Amino acid sequence: MGANMKELSIRKAQATDSEFVFTVKKAAFREYVEQIWGWDDTYQRDLHNRRFASQDIRIIQFCGTDVGFLSRSNTSASVKVDQLYILPEYQGRGIGAAYMKRIIDDANLEEKPVTLQVLKINTRATAFYQRLGFTIVDENATHFQMKRDPE
Which of 121, 134, 143 is nearest to 30 (CA)? Predict the structure, then answer.
């Protein structure tokens, strides 16, 4: 059951979206951070504020409701997915996959690979990216580095 693209829209994040973005990340990601490092709200908020200021964050909307966000960055060598988070109650509907497919299509046109990293303990995310054609190309203590070559 994939989300109908007519139900999906995306918009550039405004300063007023900062709290929503933090709320989404906390809802979708806190359980994994807690297992590895413990969740320190002050540290996570500082990290969020730096990323919100420096990354090109887009708010994902489903039927007009804000349900998640993504940020990506283009280098001469690749398209990097920096962050992609969907509120838990909207996960599993094909929303994240729809936007990843858009990113993959864009990267294919530019003949660039798509790269990202995922926490090793987030097996759902790893499986999600593998279904989209990503493979694990490297790892460190906490993360897998994943890549999808252009078609």
Answer: 121
Distance from the Cα of residue 11 to its chain's centroid: 15
Alpha-carbon distances, residue 97 vs 17, 40, 56, 76, 128 (angstroms): 22, 30, 19, 24, 8
pLDDT digits (tens, 9 = 90+) for 73-100: 999 999 999 999 999 999 999 999 999 9
Q: Whose structure tokens read 């989300």? A: 3
User: Sign of the CA dihedral 43, 54, 65, 127?
Assistant: negative
Enter the tokens of residue 60.
């994902």
Q: Residue 59's CB: how many other CB atoms inside 10 A?
A: 19
Compute the distance between CA of residue 32 and CA of residue 52 in angstroms, rounded to an integer: 20
